[in-house]
Structure formats: C-alpha cells, structure tokens
Amino acid sequence: MIKVSVMYPNKPGGRFDHTYYRDKHMPLVKSLMGGACLFYTVDKGLAGGGPGEPATYVGMCHIYCDSVESFQAGFGPNAPKIMADIENYTDLKPVVQISEVVVGQR
Amino acid sequence: MIKVSVMYPNKPGGRFDHTYYRDKHMPLVKSLMGGACLFYTVDKGLAGGGPGEPATYVGMCHIYCDSVESFQAGFGPNAPKIMADIENYTDLKPVVQISEVVVGQR
Q1: Could you read off the pLDDT of A69-100 as tens digits, one per residue?
Q2: With contact defined as beta carbons under 8 Å apart, do B2 and A86 qualify?
Q3: Taking CB atoms and an 8 Å cutoff, what residues of chain A touch B49?
Q4: Nearest neighbour of A43 by CB, restricted to B48, B95, B102
Q5: Quick check: A95 and B26 CB within 8 A?
Q6: Does B79 lie at the interface with A, CB-CB under 8 angstroms?
Q7: pTM of the model
Q8: What's the Cα-to-Cα distance from A55 to each of B4, B55, B80, B101, rounded to whole Å?
Q9: In a 10 Å sphere around its CB, with 0-12 CB exposed, 13-18 middle and 19+ buried, how is residue B85 labelled?
Q10: Which residue from B43, B94, B103 is facing A42, i.e. has the nearest CB?
Q11: Is B68 close to A55, i.e. CB distance below 8 A?
C-alpha cells in the first residue's frame, strides 16, 4: 500500500479553511477517485517539536491506495476538477510526497 | 486524538536504515511509551509530487495518542533512551510536528 501525503506549509499570513477542507474538498477527492482511494486521513497542525514552535504544516491529507499506478489512474483524469477546488480553501502551495506504508498500524 | 509526526528530511548522503527503524527503533518506542502510544505507523519515502522529484522525507513515523498530555507523559521520561537509539539508524535531524487528527479514516 502507498500513501500520497499533501502537506500545506504553515506560512505566516497563509489562508487555510480547515472546515472546507474536511467537509467539502476531501469528500470531493474521494468521490472523484472512487475505489482507487482506499481511504484518507486529515490532520490539522497544532505545534512543532519544541516548546512554542509552530507546526511545519498547517494542514495535511494522506490518500491511501494499492499502488502508485492505482493512485495515478484515480487521480489523473480528475486532477483538473480537484485542482480547481483548491482556491476555495487555501492560497498555499502544498508539498506532495508518495510513501510506501511500511507499518500500517501497530 | 493527536498524532506526533517525526519526519526525516531526504538529504543527499544522509544515512537512514529503514529495517532497523521498522524492526528495532519503533517497537522500542512503543514498548517504552506503553499505553500512551495508542498505535503508530511508519512510512518510507518513494517520490515527490512531480515526475522524477525525490521524496521530501526519506522516512517518517506517526505516533497516535489520546492527547498532547498523554504523549508527553509517555514520551518525556523515556526521551533519553529513545534519543540514544537514533544514531543506530540515522544521522538526519527530523522535523517534528504535532497534529490534531481531524479525520482518522474515511
């Protein structure tokens, strides 16, 4: 299994609507990707590692798929619709990473 | 529920032993933290978001706890033992972030 992490840097003055992201954008992604998205998770940044440090990312999602190929098959054709919705919740440019899920839950 | 993400930047020449991390370090963390760690997950970076882009993080773990307080109670007293094990798998300095789990799995 792989996960695609979309991580929005916590820039001063940046706009990020956590409610829209949770209630509208991510359900839209899941709905468009169908079975290619096995499931997804959403995080809201609270803090960094040290006392008083800000979170590196203000918000993140992680999209879990069987393989990179199944992600691309589910996401690719829907990318224009998904991308067009981004301005509705943020003006931040995300960092995107694909990872192998080495330990799913233990 | 909160998650503590420990993310190791994918620096050229950096050392990261994925097998040790999965088989020794993370089980040690779980064992020392006891019930304060509800569960954890481990990722191995495969790629970035664009064609040919490297992953931002070579490895990550996410430690799930009921609250920041329960994480601190479980991790704090064991920090010296956990920190002392880091040199066994990496010479990279991780980025640490605490997040609220907004959507656990959907």
Answers
A1: 999 999 999 999 999 999 999 999 999 999 99
A2: no
A3: 94-98
A4: B102
A5: no
A6: no
A7: 0.96
A8: 11, 20, 23, 14
A9: middle
A10: B103
A11: no
User: What angle (nearest 5°) sits at the alpha carbon of residue B79, between those of residues B74 and B81?
Assistant: 115
The two structure tokens encoding residue A86 = 């981004």
Give the position of tokens 């440019």: A93
Paired tokens of A94: 């995300």
Is the Cβ–Cβ distance between B57 and B97 less than 8 Å?
A: no
Q: Could you give the maximum distance between any two Cα atoms of chain A, in Å?
A: 43
What secondary structure letter does DSSP report for A94?
P
Residue with structure tokens 């956990």? B82
Burial class (CB in 10 A: 0-12, 13-18, 19+), A81: exposed
Phi, then psi, of A99 in degrees rounded to 5: -125, 150
Neighbours of A15 (CB within 10 A): 11
Alpha-helix residue ranges (DSSP H) falling in A26-92? 26-33, 68-75, 79-85
In sequence order, which residues have a C-beta less than 8 Å from that of residue A64 and are 6 or more positions away?
A1, A2, A3, A37, A38, A39, A40, A41, A101
Closest CA to B6 of B105, B83, B84, B103: B83
First-to-last CA distance in chain A?
15
Half-sphere exposure of B44 (CA within 13 A, CB side): 12
> Does B22 sit within 8 Å of A103, measured CB to CB?
yes
Q: How confident is the model at residue B37 (pLDDT cuts 50, 70, 90)?
A: very high
